[in-house]
Amino acid sequence: MNDELGDRIKTYFEDPARVLLPRKTWVVVRIDGKGFHTFTRNMPRPYHRPLADALDAAAIHVCEQMTGCAFAYGQSDEYSFLMSDFGRDDSRMWFDGSVQKIASVSASLFTAAFHRAFAEPGLAAFDARVFAIPNRAEVEKYFRWRQDDASRNSLNMLASHYYSHEELLGKSASEKHDLIHDKGDNWAKWPADFKRGRVVRRTEDRFAVDAEIPIFTRDAAYLDSLIPRAD
Questions:
Q1: Domain hosting residue 118, numbered range
Q2: What is the DSSP string of 16-37?
Q3: Beta bridge partners of 132
Q4: Which of 73, 76, 95, 167 is the most exposed place for a label (fewest CB within 10 A)?
Q5: What is the CATH number of the domain that holds 217?
Q6: pTM above the 0.90 mark?
C-alpha cells in the first residue's frame, strides 16, 4: 500500500529524531523512580524490604527481556543495566540501538513488573536514561560510583530516621555515624544490600538477585567478572 503522507512524516520528522547507539560498545540503561520521596512517604523507614523486593523483581524482568544484558545493579529507587552486543560480529543490539525505544520500553517494562510485584497502594513511575561508555575501565568506574552513592544514601536515610534535616545539616559522614550510635544503632550492622546495593546476574539458566555483594573497590574481581569484554 502506497502511503505518501506516512512516508513524508517519517522522512521529515521521525527519522531525524532517531538516535542510534554506537555498535560494539558498553551501554548503560539507568532506570530511576520518579517522585519516589512522595510515593514512599507513608512507608516504613529507613528500609522497606517489600519495596526492595519489588524493585528486584522488576529488574529481573527487564534483564530477561533486554537483549545482550550482562547484569544490573540496584540501590535506593534505581537500577542500572549493562548491555552490549559483543557476542558475534552479527550480534544485534536491543532495538537496533534506538535510544528512544530502549529508554521507553525499559521504563515501561520496569514499571509494569514493579506494580505486579508490589501490593501496596499508589502509582509509581520510572524514567530511563541510556548512554554508551567507550571503554571497560570507565564502566567499572561507573558502577563504583553508583555503589559509593548507595552507601551515602543508606547512611543518610538511617541518620534521617533519627534526626531532622536541620539537625543533620552540615554533618560529615563520621559525625552521622556517631549520631546514629548515640541512638543505640549501628549502620554497619544493617543488611548488606541496604548499605551497598544488589546485583541481578545470570546464574546457570536465569537471572537472580545477589543481595550479599562485596564493596567493589575492595573486591575488584567480583565486578570484573560481571562486565563483558570486547575481545
A1: 4-146+192-226
A2: GG--BPPSSSEEEEEEEEESHH
A3: 27
A4: 167
A5: 3.30.70.3000
A6: yes
